[in-house]
Amino acid sequence: AMAWTPEAASLKYTVELLTSCADPVSPGHVAALQAMEAYRASHPDFAAYLAAVYAQDYPEPVSGALRTIAGLQLKNIMAQQSSLLGEGQRAYVQSKTASMLADADRQLRHTAAMVMNSLLMMHELSSWPGLLPTLRQGLESQDPNASEGCLFAVDLIAQDYPNKLAGADAGMLEPIMNQVLQRTGSSNVAQRCHSLSIITNLLPNIPACLRQHMAQLIGVLLTMCQDSSDRVRELVCDCLDTIVDMHPDYAKSNFETIINAMLHLTEHDPSVRVRRAAADFWGTLCMQTFIPLDLLEAKLPTLLTVLLNGMQYSQEEIDTIHADEGADSGINPASLNKKAEKLAQEADDEEEFDDEDDEEGDPEAEWTLRKASANGLDELANRFNEKIMGPLWPHVQDRMQSENWLVRESAILAIGAVCVGTQDFMMQHNLTQQLVRNITLYIS
Asked: What DSSP string runs through 214-230?
């Protein structure tokens, strides 16, 4: 196909359209948007003209703001109707977008990555033969802009289309993944974050070029548990969690080190987000078929206490409850734990409780340290049954006697979490009647 080039008059009109749309407070803003929409509908090659403005393929200088608008418009169009472009026009858009990954302006670079992702929504990687070579070249470049832009682009693709990336030609993907793995040791926090995100997103459908580095990767991740960045440590937890979930064979020889590292993060990390990510690990670990039960059992006294501590409402959650209930109404502890109430009502039954009951009383829909800790305790109870009650029960009883209602509430949440996995123990020791008395006193 012949190379496509923009026609001067149409290109000038595209710049005029974008300029008239750029000021949202101008009187003609709505009319300008309508004019641009009408022009787009009647000109299937409009995307290629947007690419020309975005990449400054225009004889006069265009502002960075206007080029960003052109790039974002291009992203939206490519997601909806890239199939309307002729082969030459699509090749032009691809070429201009790829060139922008090395732009000096960070926002323009990141816009290029978003345009690239929009193209991949409708097409396979093979429809853009130059894409992976461009990404490799950028990652291997000494130009920090090209390196950053291409790493950001690979991260976006890995997040949105991990199967397309994992299934790419091995000869093209391997040098890219080698660069990604190298960046786990970068002095730049953002590069470490992007690399961990890419690796974690590719683990479910793991390509051979990542599989062969798994032993080395786990060693790197264990070192990165001490990283100075909260976000990096959170991503390390996510990555180790995914490895244990999807590829436990690779973790076998390091289980004790991994368990010790995750326990330390769950207990001691200064960031609540990292503690939440680390707390998620215990539920994942308990669902594996061949976990080293003796190794985990030896950690139970510490782990159970740590998870109990994580089950207390944080100050932020309490503030949210105050806001939801009104400043004058105070906090009603009875409204905070539907699962515990249901346990009190049905203590003599052996029914499982629907997980949705947890959600009704939660002040936030987001996944919190409290929920992650409760889930971990729930899975430990399902795995170890009454074995957890020896180290757990004295702490629960102590908490039920606390003067602080937040501490008492966390004990009731703990009972709700373990009640199914330890029901034989509860019935054998006639604990259900005691629990009903304690919980009724608490919620009344």
From this structure: HHHHHHHHHHHTT-S-H
